[in-house]
Amino acid sequence: MSAPLLQVRQLRSGYGAVEVLRGVDLDVAPGEIVALLGSNGAGKSTFNQTVSALLRARAGSIVFDGQDITSAHYRDVVRAGLIHVPEGRRIFPNLSVLENLELGSFARARASRAANLERVFAIFPRLKERRSQLAGTMSGGEQQMLAIGRGLMGEPRLLILDEPSLGLSPLLVEELFGLIASLHGQGLAILLVEQNVGQSLEIAQRAYVMENGAIEFSGDSASLLASDRLRRAYLGA
After folding, report:
1. Could you give the C-alpha distances from 148 to 86, 97, 101, 127, 151, in angstroms and in order?
2. From 3.40.50.300, 3.40.720.10, 3.30.360.10, 2.40.30.110, which CATH number describes the 1-81+157-164+189-237 domain?
3. Can you say how many angstroms the Cα of residue 68 is from the centroid of all Cα atoms in its chain?
């Protein structure tokens, strides 16, 4: 594997007196899809928030593109090109689709906003059709497209997708994972944080499995799919 784009070592984080992350190590190489898997409550979203500087790390280090960002402000993390599409979409419901997308280039890539907007519209034609529609009136699948499109507006070097398939129909989940594979095909590095183990492993090169705030095991996707431990814990086999 090439030198990591994202390198996390012995990361500890939590809320108040509760420590959630207990010494997490994780790497993502340039242009790689890495899946972070685990059940609800395993600590995945806490990991995302800490890496994105929305939550302060208590110990350990986070290095992005050779720069230590452990104590960086979240705006500086975004400016560096590490962009997080949060769980639950977090769109602005009372703003239009276009206004939501434009906000994605507020901290990064503002000069190329028009070109990036056309790129997002090419990826998501439905967003172009509904550019003037209030975001809160769209379906869940369309809102997820908008959340990802907003992330792409900032020209990410690494895109963190936090539970992107949550609440979507099986047909939309298939469409979503096809989109993620397509973005990867364009050279984008992606950290895919999901409970959907089977489909995540189909498109990721490697994966980490988190339980109780720690990485329990990791490996390439083919090996994990063949792992009895993973099959028993997550695939019901």
Report:
1. 9, 12, 9, 11, 5
2. 3.40.50.300
3. 20
Residues 6+ apart with CB under 8 A from 225: 198, 201, 231
Instruction: Please say if the pLDDT value at position 152 is more than 80.
Output: yes
What's the N-to-C CA distance of the chain in angstroms? 31
Report pLDDT for 14. 96
Helix axes of 170-185 and 140-152: crossing angle, nearest 10 degrees: 10
CB neighbour class for 162 (10 Å; exposed up to 12, middle 13-18, buried from 19): buried
Give the pLDDT of residue 234: 66
Write out pLDDT tens, residues 182-231.
Answer: 999 999 999 999 888 889 999 999 999 999 999 999 999 999 888 887 77
Tokens of 159: 């895109």
Spatial neighbors of 158 by CB under 8 A, at least 6 apart, are 5, 6, 28, 64, 81, 82, 83, 189, 190, 191
For 138-150, give the DSSP string.
S-HHHHHHHHHHH
d(CA 141, CA 163): 13
Residue 219: per-residue pLDDT: 94
Maximum separation of any 2 CA atoms in the chain, in Å: 51
Domain positions in the chain: 1-81+157-164+189-237
Calculate the average pLDDT of the chain.
Answer: 92
Global confidence as pTM: 0.92
pLDDT score of 235: 60
**Taking a C-beta distance cutoff of 8 angstroms, is the pair 191, 147 a contact?**
no
